[in-house]
Design goal:
four-stranded antiparallel sheet
Length: 260
């Protein structure tokens, strides 16, 4: 898409126009997939590319705290699903009124249906107790593993694979289902596979659970809470947000300035 317009003189390190468009397309067309998985197997060469992309995520102190646990066994998937079901029922009781009713109608996982499950974990002791960049914010290693999740997700979308992040688990139950040691932190259980289609919008947005926030409402300048809607940047951001939504649509809006 041409939402991020190239300057008159493009920086020598910038990607080509087509490559840049592909990056933004992957970002804006990514979806959390729950119910559209197909039984088609994921070839090892495709899965290898996706996992390699995840392994090349940034990490604090270059500690690379992640492991990737690939799940294809139906028996193991069923154990993971059983752990989800327990937490899912508990979660429903945490909402009230219409929210609870809506929650109970949502499809929130594809654990059994997806051909592959991938659990990304964080070994917080991997390179010892003192890590460059983690000396004052100890959770930076967890955030590093989340970067691996995002790398995998975008690479998977570029490959035509759907990914669904299942987070409704009691942590110890997921550890038990996958024989993960207690000192290893599960970060994400991802359902991965080819899909019948990708939805135009995030499912929770479509279901009316929450709207997408206008980007200018989450933007401050120089100090927390300081807004300035007269800034030229705000005008550009509003335009880019509209184009991002158009890019994510399938098919894109007819009047969108987009290659998606």
């Amino acid at each position: 898409m041409t939402s991020i317009s190239a300057p008159a003189t493009q920086d020598q390190h910038a990607f080509t126009h087509e490559a840049r468009e592909a990056v933004y397309q992957a970002i804006f067309k990514r979806r959390d997939v729950r119910g559209q998985f197909l039984p088609k197997p994921v070839p090892d060469e495709v899965l290898s590319r996706v996992l390699t992309a995840a392994h090349h995520a940034p990490s604090v102190g270059f500690m690379q705290p992640w492991n990737f646990l690939v799940v294809k066994s139906d028996v193991v998937k069923r154990r993971v699903h059983d752990a989800f079901e327990v937490a899912h029922k508990q979660a429903a009781q945490m909402f009230e009124g219409d929210k609870r009713a809506t929650y109970q109608t949502l499809k929130l996982e594809g654990i059994v249906e997806s051909p592959v499950g991938i659990c990304i974990t964080c070994d917080r002791a991997r390179t010892g107790p003192v890590v460059i960049g983690r000396t004052h914010i100890p959770t930076m290693d967890l955030y590093s593993s989340v970067c691996a999740v995002q790398n995998l997700w975008l690479a998977a979308r570029a490959e035509g694979l759907g990914v669904g992040w299942v987070s409704i688990f009691n942590e110890t139950a997921l550890q038990d289902a996958l024989a993960i040691p207690r000192h290893i932190t599960p970060i994400a259980y991802l359902c991965v596979g080819y899909v019948s289609h990708f939805k135009d919008k995030p499912e929770l947005e479509t279901a009316g659970w929450l709207p997408r926030l206008p980007i200018q409402d989450v933007l401050y300048f120089d100090s927390w809470g300081q807004r300035d809607d007269q800034q030229a940047l705000v005008v550009h951001l509003q335009r880019e947000e509209a184009l991002a939504v158009a890019c994510g649509a399938n098919p894109p809006l007819a009047n969108a300035d987009s290659l998606c």
